[in-house]
C-alpha cells in the first residue's frame, strides 16, 4: 500500500505539469482555434525566468576582508552579492534563497508580454489557415526560441534549487501509520498547480470576462454581433495561457533542472494529453493530465519495466490509441472540434 500511494503521488507530480501545459494549449485552441506547437517553449522560457533571476541576485562585487588571510598572510578578496549589500546580510541571503518563488513575480508580466507579441506578431495571421500551417509555423518558432535560449544559457542543465525551508522531505504517511516520505517541493508544486487550475476555472466561470470568453468559444460570430470586441479578449487569453505555461516552468525548475530542450520534451506529451482529454475541453485536459501522469508513474516501477521492457516510454501513447479507438473525440471532447 505504501508503494501504491507513493506512485500515485509521483503521478500527481508529473500530472501537474502535464495538466498545466495542456490547460494552456486548450485555452489557445478553444479560443483562437490555433494548434500552438510553440507552447512548450513558453514553459521553457518560464523556467529560464527563474534561472535569470537567480543569476541576477547572485551578482557580486569584491571587497578586501582584513579579518581573513591567505597562507602568505595577505587579506582575502571576498565576493559580496549586491542584494546583501543593499538589504543587509540576512535579508539579502533570504532573497537569494527564495529566488525561484520570487521569479513568479517577474515571470507573470514577462510571459504576458511574450504571449501578446506572439499572438499579435505571428499567430493572428494564421487564424484562418489550415492546422498544418499553424503547426509548421509555431513549431519553427519554438525551435527559434529554443536556439536563442541555448545561445545565451548553454546546452547543459542549470540547477535552480528550491528554498532551504522547502528542500527537505515530509513523512506524509505518519498520520495514517504508513511510511511515505516525499520531497516537500514536489508537494508544493502539486498544490501550486491545483491553485492555478482552480483559479483559471473560477476566472472563466464566475467573471464577466470569462463568461464572454466562454461564449466566444462556443459562438464567436454571435458574440461579435453583440458589439463585443472578442478578438481583444482572445488576445488576452493567449497571454494568460502563456503565463500559465511560464509559471508552470518556473516552479518545475527545482524538480528538473532547466535546459534548452525541456519545452520540446513536454510539448509532445502535453499534446497527447490534450487529444486524450478531448480537443477544446478544459476539464478533459486537466483530467487526462493527471490520469496519464499516474499511469506513467506506475509504468515506471521496477515490476512494470521488468515485465514489459520500455513500457514506461510508450504507456501514454498506448492509452491514447485505446482512447481514440473507443472515443474518437477523447474523454470529454466536444462535437465538431477539428471534424470539419
UniProtKB/TrEMBL annotation:
GO molecular function: transmembrane transporter activity
Superkingdom classification of source: Bacteria
GO cellular component, one term: plasma membrane
Gene Ontology terms describing biological process: amino acid transport
InterPro entries assigned: ABC_transp_permease, BCAA_transport_permease
Topology in the lipid bilayer: Multi-pass membrane protein
Keyword list, A-Z: Amino-acid transport, Cell membrane, Membrane, Transmembrane, Transmembrane helix, Transport
Cellular compartment(s): Cell membrane
Membrane spanning residue stretches: 15-35, 42-61, 91-114, 189-213, 233-254, 266-295, 307-325
Family membership: Belongs to the binding-protein-dependent transport system permease family. LivHM subfamily.
Record-given protein name: High-affinity branched-chain amino acid transport system permease protein LivH
Organism: Falsiruegeria litorea R37
Gene this chain is encoded by: livH_5
